[in-house]
C-alpha cells in the first residue's frame, strides 16, 4: 500500500478540490499520511494568484522532494496550469492542470505503470470538471464548489488564464452532494466558486459578457439548498458587488439558513484606480451595495479584498481608498500588495511602485482593518448569539471549545464543568468580553 500525502494552497475552491482528490485516491487504496512525514507520493494543490503564492507552491514542491528524494511529486492546479511551456516545473514528476483534477486517480495510475514524466494537458479548461465529496477535511463545515472560471479579465489577474471561462455545476448535483454531507452531520455549507456571481450564466448565453450575472440561477440554487434537511447555515463565497440588488437580497433574506456574512471584492476605493484595474463599478456604487445589505440584514459582517500599490496609484489615490474604507467599516479586510503577473495588462503598465511603498501602504490599511474589526465584534458583546462549535483549542494554556457565530465571529467557551462533546453542535450563548484579540468569550 503506497503512502500518499497532500498539501493545499490557495482559495476555498482549491480546498474543495483537494478534498475531492483525497477522497478519490484514498478510495483507490492509498494510505494517507501527514505531509511532513515520508510518503511515496506527494500531492501539492498549487496556487498562482500572486508571486507569494507561486513561491509557496515551489517551496512545498521542494519540501516534498526533501522529505523523500525518491517520492513521486505531483503538482496540480493553477501554478502548473499557467506554465504550459514547462518553466518552473523542475522537481515535479507529474503535472496535472485544473481541467484534469477529476481524473487524478486514473492519471496517477497510468504514471506509476509507465514510470515516465507526464505533463497532463495544460490547455485552457473547457467543460466543468465535475468532482464530488462525501466527506471533507473539516468536520463541521463543508466547502461546496458550484462554479469554475471567470470572464471578468481584471487587468491584474491571471486567474482567467489559469481557470478558463465560466462553467457552472448542475443544481441537482450540488443538492445531491449537500444532502449526502448533511446526512453525515455537516450543518454549515460554504457555497463557492472562482466567480460565484456568474453562476449559471453559461447556461443562458453563447457569448457571456462581463456585465451578465447569474442572480436567478444562484437564488434557485440557494433556495433548494436551504430546503435540505439538516442544513443550518449557508455561507456565500466572494460576490461581485453588482449582483447585490434589492431583488437578490429580498430573495436570500427569506432563507433561514443564509448567514449575514458577505464578502464583496472591492480592490480599491478610488475610481481612477478601479478603471485601471478594469473593475466594472465605481466606489459610490460599491458603497450603495453595502448600504443595501445593511437594509436587509441586521448587523451583517461585510468583508472585502483590497490591493495596495497598483501601478500608477498616487498618494492621493491611496488616501482616497483609505478614507473610503474607513467610511464603510468592514468586519474584515484582506490587504494584498499588488503582485505583477506576467501576461496581464497591469504587468506592463507605467508607474510600477516599489515594494517598500506597497509595504508601507499595506501596514496603514492593516491598522484600519484591526480597528474596524474590533469595533464590529465589540457591538455583539452582551448579546445572545448562535455558535457552531468546531474543535477544542488551547488558548493561553487553557482548553476552550471554539466556533463561529453566523456573522463568523470567533467565540471561545470554557466547558470545564462538563465532558460534553460540543463538536458540530449549535448553541445559543451570551457573548462576553475579549478573551484575546482573536476570540470573544462565550458565557
Features:
443 residues, Rossmann fold, pyruvate-formate lyase- activating enzyme, 5-stranded mixed beta barrel
How would you describe the overall organization of this protein?
This protein is an alpha/beta fold and 443 residues long. The protein has three domains: 3-119, Rossmann fold; 141-378, pyruvate-formate lyase- activating enzyme; 384-442. Helices cover 33% and strands 22% of the residues. The protein contains twelve helices and 18 strands. The strands form four sheets. Strands 2-1-3-4-5-6 form a six-stranded parallel beta sheet, sandwiched between helices. Helix 6 (171-183) packs parallel to helix 7 and helix 11 (315-328) runs parallel beside helix 12 (355-378). The longest helix has 24 residues, at 355-378. It is globular, with a radius of gyration of 22 Å.
SSE order and pairing:
Blueprint: E1 3-8, H1 12-27, E2 31-32, E3 41-46, H2 51-67, E4 72-77, H3 78-81, E5 94-96, H4 104-114, E6 118-119, E7 141-148, H5 159-163, E8 167-168, H6 171-183, E9 188-193, H7 215-226, E10 233-236, H8 246-253, E11 261-263, H9 271-277, H10 283-296, E12 301-308, H11 315-328, E13 332-337, H12 355-378, E14 384-395, E15 398-405, E16 410-413, E17 426-434, E18 440-442
Helix pairs in contact: 6-7, 11-12
Amino acid at each position: 500500500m503506497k503512502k500518499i500525502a497532500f498539501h493545499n494552497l490557495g482559495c476555498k475552491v482549491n480546498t474543495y478540490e483537494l478534498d475531492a482528490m483525497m477522497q478519490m485516491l484514498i478510495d483507490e487504496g492509498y494510505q494517507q499520511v501527514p505531509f511532513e512525514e515520508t510518503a511515496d507520493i506527494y500531492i501539492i494543490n498549487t496556487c498562482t494568484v500572486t508571486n507569494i503564492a507561486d513561491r509557496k507552491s515551489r517551496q512545498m514542491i521542494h519540501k516534498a522532494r526533501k522529505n523523500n528524494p525518491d517520492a513521486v511529486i505531483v503538482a496540480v492546479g493553477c501554478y502548473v496550469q499557467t506554465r504550459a511551456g514547462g518553466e518552473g516545473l523542475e522537481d515535479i514528476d507529474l503535472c496535472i492542470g485544473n481541467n484534469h483534477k477529476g481524473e487524478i486517480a486514473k492519471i496517477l495510475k497510468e504514471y506509476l505503470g509507465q514510470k515516465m514524466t507526464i505533463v497532463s494537458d495544460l490547455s485552457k479548461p473547457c467543460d466543468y470538471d465535475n468532482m464530488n465529496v462525501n466527506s471533507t477535511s473539516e468536520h463541521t463545515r463543508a466547502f461546496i464548489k458550484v462554479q469554475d472560471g471567470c470572464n471578468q479579465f481584471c487587468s491584474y489577474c491571471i486567474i482567467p488564464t489559469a481557470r478558463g471561462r465560466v462553467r457552472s455545476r448542475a443544481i441537482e448535483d450540488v443538492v445531491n452532494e449537500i444532502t449526502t454531507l448533511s446526512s453525515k452531520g455537516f450543518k454549515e455549507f460554504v457555497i463557492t466558486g472562482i466567480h460565484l456571481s456568474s453562476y449559471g450564466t453559461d447556461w443562458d448565453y453563447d457569448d457571456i459578457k462581463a456585465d451578465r450575472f447569474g442572480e436567478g440561477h444562484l437564488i434557485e440554487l440557494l433556495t433548494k439548498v436551504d430546503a435540505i434537511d439538516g442544513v443550518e447555515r449557508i455561507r456565500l463565497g466572494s460576490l461581485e458587488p453588482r449582483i447585490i440588488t434589492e431583488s437578490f437580497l429580498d430573495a436570500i433574506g427569506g432563507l433561514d439558513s443564509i448567514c449575514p456574512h458577505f464578502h464583496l471584492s472591492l480592490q480599491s476605493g478610488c475610481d481612477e484606480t478601479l478603471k485601471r484595474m478594469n473593475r466594472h463599478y465605481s466606489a459610490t456604487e460599491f458603497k450603495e451595495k453595502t448600504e443595501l445589505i445593511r437594509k436587509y440584514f441586521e448587523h451583517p459582517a461585510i468583508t472585502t479584498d483590497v490591493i495596495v500599490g497598483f501601478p500608477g496609484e498616487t498618494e492621493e489615490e491611496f488616501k482616497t481608498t483609505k478614507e473610503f474604507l474607513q467610511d464603510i467599516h468592514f468586519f474584515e479586510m484582506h490587504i494584498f500588495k499588488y503582485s505583477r503577473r506576467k501576461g496581464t495588462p497591469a504587468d506592463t503598465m507605467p508607474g510600477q511602485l516599489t515594494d517598500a511603498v506597497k509595504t508601507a501602504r499595506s501596514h496603514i490599511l492593516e491598522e484600519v482593518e484591526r480597528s474596524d474589526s474590533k469595533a464590529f465584534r465589540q457591538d455583539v458583546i452582551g448579546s445572545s448569539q448562535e455558535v457552531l462549535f468546531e474543535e477544542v483549542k488551547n488558548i493561553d494554556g487553557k482548553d476552550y471549545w471554539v466556533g463561529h457565530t453566523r456573522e463568523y465571529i470567533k467565540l471561545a467557551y470554557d466547558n470545564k464543568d462538563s465532558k460534553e462533546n460540543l463538536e458540530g453542535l449549535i448553541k445559543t450563548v451570551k457573548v462576553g468580553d475579549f478573551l484575546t484579540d482573536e476570540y470573544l468569550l462565550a458565557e
